[in-house]
Structure formats: structure tokens, C-alpha cells
Amino acid sequence: MRFIIVTGMSGAGKSTALKMLEDAGYFCVDNLPVQLVPKLGELLIVPGTEINKIALGMDIRSGQGIDDLEQSLNELDKMKIKYEVLFLEASDEVLIKRYKETRRSHPLAGGGRVDEGIRRERGKLAFLKKRADYLVDTSRMLTRELRSELHKIFVENKDYKNIYITVLSFGFKYGLPSDADLVFDVRFLPNPYYIDNLRAKNGNDPEVRDYVMSSDTARCFLEKLTDMVRFLIPNYVSEGKTQLVIAIGCTGGKHRSVTLAGALYRELAGEEQDYGIKIEHRDIEKDAVTKGN
């Protein structure tokens, strides 16, 4: 028996989550009147019922009813009906961008600004975020990546530490990534730019990877960096962090940073892990050939 309450910020991916759960065999209901939530939960404890997996979508569109949801959840607790809360989160900047791209208005903005609607929504949903069993930040996720993470949690039943890690390569010449949490400069490593047959290649090519990682310094750096990140992840989780961006930079973001970002990603993704992780190369295509990469 599994009862999932899918909620979170408008524009953070609730519709995608419900569709994925429906595809996985969950009986999905969106924005049921809050007063009926305990009744829906009772379906799961009726002897002989064929429904054993329910996903209930709840968001700010429930209007004033959202204020009564905490009481309904308390009723489920009293009836000893087990439920899990999936809270989908995203940064204000990302939510605003999504609303602008879709030309939708925020349900709490009225005729005003989207950012004000988002601020009000965060206040109204704060109690749900505190009760969340799974807190997934979709700020840097593609739709397919979100579906993949939810599949791990609700289909494969893997543990999830409520944190999603992005390993990001970049070039300092194009500026620091604005959302980076940790930034590492690998411009001290041997530079493939000065090798004629490597200049036009990038850090995803075996020849470049082999050249960079042939350095004892590069191997030592990767070992120490991986050890530090492994130490940091559970500590970030315990502090409630849901999104971790690890940025690794060289001059142009094409050779050294791509190599080390790829190596760190493989170290973290290749082990048994209970967090989401992906890799991005921000500047890898910006120069065909650039001096000083």
C-alpha cells in the first residue's frame, strides 16, 4: 500500500510527477477537495480493495482549502493511514522564467507580478515543505531527468537523500556560474590547447582525457576532490540543502574542466548512491579553437 501526496510550487513539475506515477500504475487524483483527503486514504485500508497505490496532487489551486490540509493530514495520522509527501521545489528565478516562457499567470498573482505570487505561495505551502518525505528541486532538471528520479523513488523504491547534484564544467573567460555552490579552478593542470593534435578536441575525447589525467597532479586532485564531495553530501543533506552545483572551471571550459568534471561525475555516479546526479558542460561548444584554453 502506498499513498503519495504530490505537491509543491506551481511550475515546479507536479503535472510531470503525476503523469509519471500514473504510467507506473498509481491511481492519480488531482486537486481533490481537501475535506475528502481522509476518505481517499480510507480506500487503501478497505479489505479486498484493488487500489493499493494512490497519488494525490495538491497545490495552491485548492484555494482556501490548502489551509485546512494540515488538519486533514493530522486525521490521516490519527487513523494510522501511512502517506508520503513529495514536495517539488524550484528557485524563484527558474519559476519566473518558466511562467514567462509559457505566458501563464501565477494563481496567486492576480493581475500583479509573478514574483509576488511566488512569495505568497511559498508562505502558504511552508507547512507542507516541512512535512515532506521527498524534497526534489527541479531548478536544473529536464523533464526526463525528473521522471527518472521519481521512478527511482516510487517504482524502484530506492532511498533518496533529497538532494540533486549537478557537476558543471565552465570557462572562466565566460564568467562564473551564478548558481554554483562549490567552484574549483583547474587551470593549474597541463593544458591540451598547446598540443596541436588536441587543440580542436574537447575533454570528452579520450585523447584529451588521457593527456590531462596522465598528470600525477590531476589524479591527486581528483582523489582529494572526490573524497571531499563525498564528505560534504551527507552534511548538506542534514542541513536541508536540496540542490548542489559543483562547478569546475578552466580558461575556456573546453579541455581541462570538461575532463575533471567528467571524472568526478563518473566517480560519484558509478557508486551505489541515493541522490540524483547529472553532468553539464556549459561552455564546451562556445569556441571551436580559443587561445589560452
Automatic annotation (TrEMBL):
Gene3D superfamilies according to UniProt: P-loop containing nucleotide triphosphate hydrolases (3.40.50.300)
Keywords: ATP-binding, GTP-binding, Nucleotide-binding
Residue spans crossing the bilayer: none
Pfam family, one: RapZ-like_N
Residues that coordinate or bind ATP: G8, M9, S10, G11, A12, G13, K14, S15
Positions contributing to GTP binding: D59, I60, R61, S62
Domain called RapZ-like N-terminal: residue spans: 1-157
InterPro entries (alphabetical): P-loop_NTPase, RapZ-like, RapZ-like_N, RapZ_C
Cleaved signal peptide residues: none
The RapZ C-terminal domain, residue ranges: 164-285
HAMAP family, per database record: RapZ_like
Protein name, entry field: RNase adapter RapZ
Originating species: Claveliimonas monacensis
Encoding gene per record: rapZ
